[in-house]
Amino acid sequence: MKRRHSLTMVMALAVGLLHCLFMQNLRAEERTYYDISASDVRKIMVAVPNFSSSAGNQGTSVAQLLTKGLELHGFIGVIDSSRYGGSRDADWKSLGADYVVLGQVSSDPAGIAVEGQILDVASNKQLAGRKFKGAAAQLEDMTLRLCDSLIEDFTGEKGVARTRIAFISDGSGRKEAYVSDILGRHPRQVTRHRALCVSPRFTPDGNFLAYSTYHRGNQDLYITDLRQDSATNALSRRKGLNMAPAFSPDGRNMVVTLSKGGNPDLYTMDMQGNIGQQLTSGAGINVSASFSPDGQSLAFVSDRSGKPNVYVMGAGGGQAKRLTFKCSENSEPAWSPKGDEIAFTGLQGGSYQLFVMDRNGGNVRQLSTGGGSYESPTWSPDGRLLAVARKGGSRSELCVVSKNGKDVRVLFTMQGNQSYPQWSGRLP
For the chain, does the N or the C end have fewer beta carbons within 10 angstroms? Predict the structure, then answer.
């Protein structure tokens, strides 16, 4: 196992209205973090026994949710609790555990608290502990906060269990936009247009969801305030294509594809739907813009060379550089959160596969394995995972793929087919 040394440890965690206590038994200079980016890294084996609780089965439900959150990140394998009956007292070494998360759920008239500690099995020492306090209705949220904090204790960067995903599902009989937490719990249907919806996009703050829909017979662009039950506004109903936007990192504007002049080209647009600058002009079909995290560059797809390929240019337009040459068709670029890589899909052997390249187009590597066609890649906020829609036959499901390509698994399942995933940023 490769590790990299951290210079400092975070000694406190701001959680808004919730209170968090961080307990650290190791000195900061002794703390090490796992380097999970290595191609040969093995999973960290963790046991999550039932949390102790004075109130019913809360301890069991917290342990189960924490298990799902930890497993989401891919580099952690959680030992099946049935092997030790969920007990807090077991022979952890014989079970193959590297670490054990021991936790408690407690309550008082002021609210409820969730606390978890990491036990290093080899040394039998507590490495770190986290405690969150809040209202009883916030128990699930506090559990996911605990999960993300434990991931931070392992890697030095907060986890992504407290994030959301937008997607299109036909479970209602129509392709409508949905939002759920990243574990697939509590899905919320956002649109009820009873018509095809495609390409949902979160604003950077996660408060709004933009999408394209054909409910008026044209591909129009709408945006919905997710903080309200029914607050949807039309951004663009111009003749022709009005395709879902790429929001600038500051959330002040977006880049969209419009065909109001006949040719599909990229335009800047403000949050009220007013057109600013035309960025491309008549050089093939130009779609699927993606901002670099610093807001200075745009990756996009154009068929100006005869086939769809990924190009990059300045956010204000100008000369575009072709980045992809590997497959017969290359599309759907997604810039990584750190800005050093771009994910894309490429047509290979009759199906679309998932690739990642350096931001300059070099070091192209395929992440997808097995059968199926991979579409609509979207990065986790930490840049370690990608969510995609994987199609096989008539079935489309959401999957998550590790950045090293060693782990491809179904994200969650629900009725119908799911497509066009979009991963949100971390929740406040």
Answer: C
Confirm whether pTM is higher than 0.85.
Answer: yes
All residues at 6 or more sequence positions from 299 whose CB lies less than 8 Å from its CB, including other chains: 289, 290, 292, 310, 311, 312, 323, 333, 335, 342
Above pLDDT 90, what percent of the chain?
A: 82
408: DSSP letter: E
Q: At 290, is the pLDDT very low, low, confident or very high (cuts 50, 70, 90)?
A: very high
Confidence of residue 37 (pLDDT cuts 50, 70, 90): low
Q: Are 226 and 233 in contact (CB under 8 A)?
A: no
CA dist 1 and 6 (Å) reads 16
Residue from 379, 391, 389 nearest 420 by CA: 389
Beta bridge pairs of residue 351: 348
Report the number of secondary-structure helices (H) and strands (E) in the chain: 2, 33
In whole angstroms, give the CA distance from residue 127 to residue 153: 8
Could you give the angle at the alpha carbon of 410 between the alpha carbons of 407 and 415, nearest 5°? 175
Alpha helix (H) ranges present in 188-344? Answer: none
Domains assigned to the chain: 3-155 (3.40.50.10070), 164-423 (2.120.10.30)
CA distance 234 to 192: 14
